UniProtKB/TrEMBL annotation:
It comes from Desulfonema magnum. The lineage of its organism: Bacteria, Pseudomonadati, Thermodesulfobacteriota, Desulfobacteria, Desulfobacterales. It comes from the Bacteria. This is Uncharacterized protein.
Length: 60
């Protein structure tokens, strides 16, 4: 796990209501991945609407 400052660790624990920094970091990272995947899915959908075809159609 990367080394982080004491202030940041304390903030993450409070913000996530976690028991320790490992749990807090895991929570933040998991939420980041969910948001990133949702953004990519929305971007994918926007391109499919714009070009009126799926990525599978483009590959053919």
């Amino acid at each position: 796990m990367p080394e982080i400052s004491h202030k940041l660790a304390e903030f993450l624990i409070k913000a996530t209501m976690a028991k320790d920094i490992r749990e807090a970091f895991d929570t933040v990272f998991a939420e980041y991945l969910k948001l990133k995947l949702r953004y990519l899915d929305e971007t994918d959908s926007a391109f499919m609407q714009k070009w009126k075809m799926s990525f599978e159609d483009i590959e053919d």
